[in-house]
Amino acid sequence: MIIQVVLDVPLNRAFDYRCDDATKADIGRRVLVPFGQRKLIGIVVALVNESSVETSKLRRAEEILRDIASCSAEEIALFQFCSQYYLHPLGEVMLNALPPLLRRPKPIAPPAPTHYALSSGGRAEAEAAIPARARVARDVLHLLQHNDTASVETIRAMAPGAIKHLKSFIAQGWVVPVKISAHNISLGNDVQLPSLNNDQAQVIEKISANTNKFHVTLLHGITGSGKTEIYLRLIADAIARGGQALVLVPEINLTPQLDNIFRTRFPGVTIASLHSHLNDSERLHHWLAAKTGEARIIIGTRLAVFAPIPDVNLIVVDEEHDGSFKQQDGLRYSARDVAVFRASQRGIPIVLGSATPSLESWHNAQSGRYQLLQLNQRAIQDAVLPNIHLIDMRRDKTQSGIGDALLRAIQIRLEKKQQSLLFINRRGYAPALMCHHCGWAAGCKRCSGKLVLHLRSKKLRCHLCGSESRIPTACPDCGNVELRPAGHGTQRIEATLAERFPDARILRVDRDSTRNKHAMRDMLTQIHAGEADILVGTQMLAKGHDFPNLTLVGVINADGALYSSDFRAGEKLFSQLMQVSGRAGRADLAGEVLVQTEIPDHPLYGALMRHSFTGYADALMQERKSAGFPPYVYQILLRFESVNANAVEDFAALATKLARELRAAHPGITVYDAVPAAIARVAGKERMHLLAQCASRAKLQKFSNAWHAALSEHNTKNVRWAIDVDPLDI
Ligand SMILES: [Zn+2]
Ligand SMILES: [Zn+2]
């Protein structure tokens, strides 16, 4: 028997091996095979009778690993779709979807049982055998006596020594492990449910009307309109019908807050979480819980879209517009789009939720491909939307970055003992260090970006490649010793505030201040406990957090994005500002948002003041339509880079020539000129790209396959290249 095996190698093909004991049931299983001098874990994708390799040269597979269930045919089809659509080798797609421990060439230990119950012997003997003074042991026994099963987690939480007693019970044969199946899941029916408003009730009714059919719902609801409650109700229903629910959220939203909401709501349900902060054994544990069906809710970031979910009957993508759903290297997939594919494959509903949907999803909703459902009121009664005001910075001139109007508003909040948040999407002290004599600015030697001044660490730091250097004492060009910071970052705003409000407790939340593992969690706790008066933060603070005592949001330096060359910059800025505005006044306190701008007449700000996503989206759609941009066309971007500038130029010429030649056979494709990337040099590598687009996704896919194949035939070893399908950052 010959098996075809895919491996985690950058070659888009399967490899043949002899394997005598292989059967059809082994398709989708891990297999240990020799590859060159190494031994690798691969996955069996087919059984064949003949190989194109001569039988005598065919190597023998070492062992098929049958420790866990194989990958299902549906999952293999999913991986094949991703491999073809995103032009990435199938082996890399499949192996990278596995937890790291399953990619190691050794079988895994069987997972430890998660639930225990009293054996009949234990029921008869334990009560008399445990002395009354052994309090913890008796507590553990009582828990088991009064419940059919108890989880290890619950027992561990009882008391420090509880696990030790459980182990001794196991040793005596008093308790035995039990398998938890979908039948004995408690949905926590005694949980007090919040009441729904009319909008919410209607949305739930419409989505639940059709649970056995593939359909996509775009749930457009303003911040605080109660989307989460809708997800929770749909999930409860999905589990009650015997299914699993997959919930995808942006990385930044995976907070203890969200965790609490789910665990309180579904106390008896095993929840698997999958994200990049788990260690290898946690990752394996959660992945297996999803695969065996023990976990009924799988919640995670983009990588969770590849989780094995045999019983899935509902998918939710929260904040569907968020850029973090798109992977920016390797397999450059969009988890949102892959999730829609999975739902169609399975024939189940999928809900995409957002206060500011991506224009792609908005377009699909307008054209009727998706069902559009809207929540227009805030769920909490009497809660009102914040008042948004623009501060014209052409009149409110300031050196410090914070104008008088904003300073006064902060002062009022301090007097009322309410919290303020200043939002600025730039960390560090100042984005540049300049000489005002000759115009010199400190730049990175390896990148085309400016160095960011970090006064705390007394360093200049490159935010592209991470390199650091000392702050120069004089201008290297003219010798001027008065070098000045230009522009504002979070640290500089923090310093200004500290000087102006010496008694206020100021908390800076950005990537620098949250580097340690629990820093973010600790800061959130501090904010909730009212131990901070003014927060200075980047977009990390804009999303998913609910601060009841926060009534003022100040936005600093937002204009920059409006001058960007990226045609999506306006869309991104709008959703960021809507989100950050949503932080103000969520409970019973009215909120106010002050936006400092030098272009107050810009339509983006007008729409923001009216809280009108629809108005701004319609305007952007008009622009996109007349410019011929997505969502009216589909795009692919060939990205390439090299330390050798000539090699990049040569590759640009080659790629352009091949693309132009292919156009004859692929009508309707527009091929642009190769241009330097927006950041043309990073860590010593010159970077360029070449854009191609087409109104038909199918035609573009055929073209990109042909182009990819043509490029692969050339020796381009000194250039790293990849085709990014549906690119987000151009
Ligand atoms: Zn100078
Ligand atoms: Zn650099």
Overview of the molecule:
The protein is an alpha/beta fold and 730 residues long. The chain is built from 20 helices and 31 strands. It has a seven-stranded parallel β-sheet with strand order 11-12-10-13-14-9-15, with helices on both faces. A six-stranded parallel β-sheet has the order 16-26-25-17-24-23, with helices on both faces. A five-stranded antiparallel β-sheet has the order 2-1-4-3-5. A hairpin with a 4-residue loop joins strand 19 and strand 20 (459-461). 41% of the residues are buried. The mean pLDDT is 91. The chain binds zinc ion (2 copies). One zinc ion binds next to loops.
Provide a short characterization of the protein structure.
The protein has about 725 residues and is of the alpha/beta class. The protein contains 20 helices and 31 strands. About 30% of the residues lie in helices and about 20% in strands.
**Helicity, as a percent range:** 25-40%
Number of strands: 31
Mean pLDDT over the residues:
91
Summarize the main sheet.
7 strands, parallel
Ligand names: zinc ion
Strand content: 15-25%
- As laid out across the biggest beta sheet, the strand order is 11-12-10-13-14-9-15
Helix-strand makeup class: alpha/beta
Unreliable residue stretches: none
Shape: globular
Give the terminus-to-terminus CA distance: 48 Å
Q: What is the overall number of helices?
A: 20
Radius of gyration: 29 Å
